User: Which sequence fits this backbone?
């Protein structure tokens, strides 16, 4: 059971790491696609490795500084649930 939990935790960390990698990759790729359609298509092909490298650096920085699951936990935290005075309020 303990081994299963470790495997599940590792898979979760890798999943979050890949999500963090995709954010800059997709943003730079979309920008490269837009510029590639308007100026030259080679800009799109040059933007893909740049976005991938930026994504790896971003994901590794977040992993070392916060941990990927802690980072997503902070993003998804709901402050309304922390306040005990908000019970019964809609």
Assistant:
């Amino acid at each position: 059971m303990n081994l299963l939990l470790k495997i599940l935790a590792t898979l979760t960390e890798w999943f979050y790491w890949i999500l963090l990698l995709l954010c800059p990759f997709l943003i730079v790729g979309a920008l490269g696609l837009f510029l590639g359609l308007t100026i030259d298509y080679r800009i799109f092909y040059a933007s893909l490795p740049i976005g991938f490298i930026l994504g790896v650096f971003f994901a590794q920085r977040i992993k070392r500084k916060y941990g990927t699951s802690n980072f997503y936990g902070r993003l998804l935290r709901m402050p309304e649930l922390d306040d005990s005075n908000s019970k019964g309020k809609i």
